[in-house]
Design a protein that fits this description.
This protein has about 375 residues and is mostly beta strands. The chain is about 10% helix and about 30% strand. The protein has 2 domains: about 120 residues, Sandwich (Immunoglobulin-like); about 170 residues, no CATH class. About 40% of the residues are buried. The N terminus is likely disordered.
């Protein structure tokens, strides 16, 4: 449940339409010039890192949007506990930057419906549910944070150990330390917080029909990816674990071949199908378990719990079944390889399922 979501990605420019034919005597209406799509910046992905400060974790992405999130005690994970994330946008407040937002998460959907969070108290002082800036300022020098329901009952009590340090870390990462815009590391200097531009990826819009694979082609992919059906429990049915195939455009298709499985992760090897030719897919960043440092068991680039929808290839590598730690990734196809367009991480397995974004790119779609 989100109390106030971070800003949405910038809308994509619309393709210019072809004007209708007109007679010579009829004046042609002047149309406003269409925005020129930004050129691909060809920026190598370099996701930010996350750091833990006792009971809080923090991290920033490449555009300096920073997040700090609360962590639960090990003993309470799995119960009806809530976690809180605070997000701060980059840039000086005087120029419209530095906006704060917050999100509250829980795995208990029933409790979220019957007793939704309605407000906070910090050391007994009430704070409105959506006032993220006031909440951040208050927890920087406080001992107790409670999330209340509409009747004033306590829904959760969050530890503030490390919250001030996490906020101070974000002040430093965003270039606010020693300025009037800082939350903790305040000073008299005017803010010079930068606002880095997002890298641009020129992606191809999916088109055409997906390839129809032959049994021989599937067998070739299984051999190249070391994707033995014996990797699956209970003697997997070849039809049940057949590859998913999706059209990419330009006569090429993506095949996601189930390769191995664990208790809560399904690894899919990635191939590009171009007529009779099958080649391993390439990515511009580590993907799947390669990103988490675990051995994927296949020499081919892969995704975990992957899917391909609306031109976006996703991976969700869980570090454990609760899903409160791991890495999520999104990739888009540029005609040659898959490019990392977003990555979010949670390095601590302590109940927070709201991952911290560490990489973003602006995707420009081309036919």
């Amino acid at each position: 449940m989100t109390a106030c979501s971070p800003s949405q990605p910038a809308p994509q420019p619309k393709a210019e339409s072809t004007p209708e034919a007109r007679t010579a005597s009829a004046p042609v209406a002047q149309t406003a010039p269409q925005p020129t799509p930004a050129a691909d910046s060809h920026t190598p992905p370099k996701p930010g890192t996350t750091r833990t400060f006792t009971d809080w974790t923090a991290g920033c992405d490449n555009a300096l949007r920073c997040t700090l999130g609360s962590l639960l005690p090990d003993a309470s994970i799995g119960q009806d506990d809530l976690t809180l994330n605070l997000v701060r946008e980059p840039g000086p407040v005087a120029n419209g930057g530095g906006r704060m937002s917050l999100a509250i998460e829980t795995r208990n959907a029933q409790a979220a419906t019957t007793r939704p969070p309605a407000s906070f108290t910090v050391d007994g002082k009430p704070i409105a549910l959506r006032d993220a800036a006031a909440l951040a300022a208050a927890i920087a020098n406080a001992q107790s944070l409670k999330i209340l329901d509409a009747q004033g009952g306590t829904r959760a009590t969050l530890s503030l150990k490390g919250a001030a340090a996490a906020l101070r870390y974000i002040d430093a990462q965003q270039g606010r330390a020693g300025s009037t815009d800082a939350v903790v590391a305040k000073g008299p200097a005017p803010s010079r917080a930068p606002t880095p531009a997002l890298p641009v990826i020129a992606a191809i819009a999916p088109s055409g029909a997906a390839a129809k694979l032959t049994p021989t082609q599937i067998a070739t992919m299984r051999k190249r990816g070391a994707c033995d059906l014996g990797n699956f429990p209970f003697g997997a049915d070849p039809e049940l674990f057949a590859p998913e195939v999706h059209a990419l455009g330009g006569g090429k298709s993506l095949a996601i071949l189930p390769c191995s499985t664990g208790a809560y992760n399904l690894i899919g090897a990635l191939f590009i199908v171009d007529g009779a030719k099958i080649t391993p897919a390439q990515t511009d960043a580590p993907s799947g378990f390669e990103e988490t440092g675990a051995d994927s068991g296949t020499p081919i680039r892969s995704v975990v719990n992957g899917s391909f929808e609306n031109g976006i290839l996703t991976s969700y590598a869980k570090a454990r079944g609760l899903g409160d730690c791991g890495v999520t990734q999104s990739f888009v196809w540029d005609g040659t390889r898959f490019r990392l367009s977003e990555q979010a991480e949670m390095g601590e397995c302590r109940g927070n399922i709201d991952y911290i974004t560490t990489w973003r790119a602006r995707v420009q779609r081309a036919p």
